[in-house]
Amino acid sequence: MQLVAGPFLSVDTIDMQHICRRAGDRLTYYAWFQAMHTRIDLLFVADRSEEELAAMAEAAQRLIADIEYAGNCFDNNSELSKLNNCKAGEQMKVSDYLYDLLSTCRDYTLRTGQLFDVTVESAGHDADTFSSITLADDNMVSLTRAGVYINMSGMLKGYALDCLRAMLEGEGIGDAFMSLGGSSIMGMGCKSGSDGWPVAEVIGGVQHSILLRDECFTTSGNVDGVNHHIVNPLTNREIAMNHKVSVVTRSATEGEVLSTSYLLADDAQCTHLDATFRPRRVVIDGKMHINSYP
User: Distance (Å, rounded) from C-alpha 54 to C-alpha 66?
Assistant: First the structure.
């Protein structure tokens, strides 16, 4: 994934805090800051100087800011908000990030049987609403009908994690742990002295440990007593309270898509998702749904 965002945003890294420690010939660099309406935690382990790792953390912060500028529908100044405000048929030239996000959303809408649909909040939403997003050459985008509203909050953090992984791999960093709000987590390589990165999940009152190695752990649901207005695109109805799904996948973007899709799926739709995406682990409302794919 090689993308160029634009315009690049100026981010004040003074709000980033960090801790750096040495273990043998490698440094552990841990940084945290606020973005995407949540806390971002980054941990890099590498045979690099503190200055080099600090520069990577700052680059990661800028990358997240650019992705947030591209796809945050809650920011009136974002690219996506400007697109949502376009008239039907009006073309808008967008950044590589937003164009790729829209293309990725369209692909997952088709592959999930429309369980994942970023246009579900549109006026008069129906099965054809997502197809009103037209992607043309040279990053030109238009919405071919009035009232279309795109909300990417269901996948933006996962997409950011995949872009961060690509950036770190390009810099030769193989061991890293990244968490966006605790609900979107990526483990690259392994923790020192381990075969991966351990993540805890409570199922039925019992804490289970999941070892992530070049994998992502994603959760979605509305079990905190707050209605998050998760709407089924196929019925246009909100799901009931107290439902939760977690998945382990290779791609963080896919993890975000699947955690939402399994949350909405019936048994037949779950079977379709299993066969199409083959996630290693899925837990639905405290029950292990599948755990058979390596």
Answer: 19
Tokens of 36: 């995407």
Model pLDDT, residue 18:
94
- Evaluate whether 186 touches 216 at the Cβ level (below 8 Å): yes
DSSP of 142-201: EESSTT-----TTTHHHHHHHHHHHHHHHTT--EEEEEETTTEEEEES--TTSSSEEEEE
CA pair distance 42, 259, nearest whole angstrom: 22
Q: What's residue 289's pLDDT?
A: 75
Look at the pTM and tell me if it is higher than 0.90: yes
Q: What is the mean pLDDT of residues 145-149?
A: 96
Helix (H) or strand (E) holding 89: none
State pLDDT tens for residues 51-75. 999 999 999 999 999 999 999 999 9
Three-class DSSP category at 238:
strand
Looking at residue 154, its amino acid is G
Q: How many CB atoms lie within 10 A of CB 153?
A: 15
252 neighbors 156 (Cβ within 8 angstroms): no
- Residue 279: asked if its preceding bond is cis (omega within 30°), the reply is no
